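User: Fold this; tokens only.

Assistant: Input:
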Amino acid sequence: MSYEFILRLIGMMIFILLGAMVGIDLAEALNLPPEASALIFTLMGALGGLIITPWITTYPARSARRIIVQMPAETLVTSMFGLIFGMAVAAMFAWPLSLLPDPFGQILPTIAAAVIAYISVSIFSLRASDVFTLFGGLIRARPDMLSRMAGATTAAEVLLDTSVIIDGRILDISQTGFIRGTLLVPRFVLNELQHVADSADMLRRNRGKRGLEILGELQQHSRTPVRIIDDDIAGTNEVDEKLVVLAQQLGVPVMTNDFNLNRVAELQGVSVLNINELANALKAIFLPGETMDIHIVMEGRETDQGVGYLDDGTMVVVEDGKRYMDRTIPVLITRYIVTNAGRMYFAQPSEGSLRR
């Protein structure tokens, strides 16, 4: 039996009692016997309780939970301080306002408390960074306090874009346990994957299907929680623009392989986690003077050059390597350069290969 169903039953019982009481009170006005009026309003209360209860209990609770989960820790903490401050100020005005003649003395204290609390929470949440700066000395002196406040921060959450899901390497990374927190997949990204999977172009269709399969495996086998979120951004149909705006609203980074999205997000102050940059950072580094075995697979641009690749895809250009085509030879690293695609090594056949 689900939690929502139990709440529906409780709400139905409460509305049944209210319906019976209202039916008895209105029996004379409706010119009906009290029993008949009570029965009618009891049935109406039972039906109303089943329908209305989720809208006043579970649905608001889910919305509040989603907002709290997505809210940055500093905003949540400062909002709580703002609420406490607002209620304290409202308490100071409550007694003078209660001395006013009725009905103002009964209504104004409640209205003032609500308005002051709302204004205080709004100000504290909008200036959250300034509040943390103001109390920075206290927080630095008590790092354990900061850890407790940031325990539920969404900074550990990461938004995934379409390219990084289709790429597939996020599945392997998530299974290693290096990513902490939650991987967030917006509904509009899921819709774009579905749109790509339904494309008439076979290549795009295969990419879309692969993305959906990767997402399914992420949900089933990833050591990192994966959550589909329904947050949407009005006013634009561009997925990349929605991702950037949503990341700004949630205060979380975006994980992508898209170079253009990477640059646009960085220009707007959004943190970006680029898997290509991570892959380049994890590639083995060889220094000039070190040796390795390389399989020559193609000719280079220059005369007599041969080209091979390491297991991670790094290109190695071998001088005088053309004659070793389709062979694996030991080479000596002479230099390397760093490009946008990663490192590229230059080498020459070592003495061992020359004797072959």
